[in-house]
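Researcher: Structure prediction, please.
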Amino acid sequence: MKLCLGMRLAGEPAMFDAEDLAFAAQLGVPGVKICGSDLISHERGNVLHAEDLERIVRQLDEFGITLAVVLLPQGRGTQYWNARLGRPEREQEVEDVCETIRVCGSFGVPVVEWTWSVPDVWGSTRARARGGAATRHFDYHAVEKVGPVEPDEAMDADTMWERLLWFTERIVPAAEAAGVRLALHPHDPPTPWLRGEARIIGTIEGLKRLFEEIPSPVNGLNFCQGTIAEMGTDVIAAIRWFGERDRINHVHFRDVKGAVPVFDESFIDDGDTDMLAAMRAYRDVGYRYWMMPDHTPRITGDTPYGHRGRAYALGYMRALMEAVAREAEA
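Model: Predicted structure follows.
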């Protein structure tokens, strides 16, 4: 298990903020995740370019940090938007994604994360966590009747499965050839429907089906613990099921209070999941990839990036990692 932090790129050409990299290095974080949307645009060919990744890797090298994960672009109109809607443009889009995966592999990036949704993470409001820290609240009752933005964005489960499997079957060979592991993020929030979309990978059964249909070793999961907890399932049992089959390729180590239909994101030590038991489960299944805090409540006086909240979560994670490692040695 290795600590990781998600970081944004900015400027022209896109680079990290050097203070953010110093922050990561000072906290002993060996890897970072970047968002492909910071580098990939239709204006520049809709692919990740080697010169961009080379520049970023050089900057990371100065701080002794590895590029651990690349997240493919999310959101409306981005790299593989039409594939999600089954449009003819998906033929070119899947080639663009395969080229991006090849570029990642050529620089030794071990994991490419991706998502599959039209509404994506939608429908949340603000709430208060412990001590008044700002956090995310979700109430399915408030949004379950809201329709899609456009009529053709509504889709039933069969349609979603056809499109998802079509796409996955085509990117998996590129990942295999590039030596890259794919990490699909479950639907968050994991509701039955959202804005007319069947949330087929918002359940443990749906995720299992994807890996059974396409059993390649590279076809795996971003095990977002918060999202799995939102499903109302046994998080520790899920870690063991997917981990024992080597289907966990990345981890968002966070927690929530409650589950669909109503939940709130929480501090890492203040949710419903036994986080020590979770870390033990990762150890027991031999998990060896990257693990990051993902969302953290906004602490008083924090920066827009959330340095204080992230530092708190990272320290908690490191302590759990050391604790379970020493248990294993005893």
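Model: The chain has a mean pLDDT of 97.
Researcher: Thanks, that helps.
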